[in-house]
Amino acid sequence: MHSSKPFKLTTTDITPLLIWLAIAFITWTFMHSADHFLALTPEALGKYYNLRWILIAHITAGGGSLILGAIQFWPKLRNYYKKLHRVIGLFYLLAVIVSSSCAVVLAFTTAYHVNLPYAFSLQVWVSVWISSTLIAYYSALKRKFELHRQ
Amino acid sequence: MTRSYLVTLAFVVSGLILKMPFVQKLGSFEEISPSLFWLGWAVPLYVYEIIRGQRELRLKT
């Protein structure tokens, strides 16, 4: 499933790897800042208490989508291991579906505790997230790779 | 995929902007967060479309 040339890391791989490491580090920092929710108490969760598992699934899958998605832009990995690119892509899709489905629930419930503009912003954001991801997946299925890349 | 990931990355972009001290001085979280959420994904998508358009134009000429 890979190119005839052997896979070898070169200086051109430094930039995508550094970008991926930076994204992974920022994601870890953001997820770490939500650790207090894991106490699962009404005090720690506040308005999210009734939807605690939705919130935790949203954060966990969201973090996964950030880390997995970045790998897909590493040109060498994409060109050498097409099967791996597809597998990571499917996990990315799954992570987005889980995280965005939970985001829909949160955007139409707890977000209103903040205010209407806040809730509306999240509703539009999640709609764009779901539609752009489904377009990427559908275009890959239809082998329209230029549209898939976009 | 690029568009999808830019929207995914918007969580990090708007989160980082919201943590900036001078942004926090602009108002309360309730006041400033909706605008920053829009900024987090709409601006990167706009910039991407400009770059893509320029690239296509260069290929045609």
TrEMBL record, chain A:
Protein keywords: Membrane, Transmembrane, Transmembrane helix
One short Pfam name that applies is DUF2306
Is Transmembrane found in the keyword set? yes
Transmembrane spans: 12-31, 51-75, 87-112, 118-140
Protein name per its UniProtKB record: DUF2306 domain-containing protein
Automatic annotation (TrEMBL), chain B:
Is the Membrane keyword given for this protein? Answer: yes
List UniProt keywords, sorted A-Z.
Membrane, Transmembrane, Transmembrane helix
TM segment ranges:
35-51
Q: Which domain of life is it from?
A: Bacteria
Put simply, this protein is called Cation-transporting P-type ATPase C-terminal domain-containing protein
Q: Which organism is it from?
A: Chryseolinea lacunae
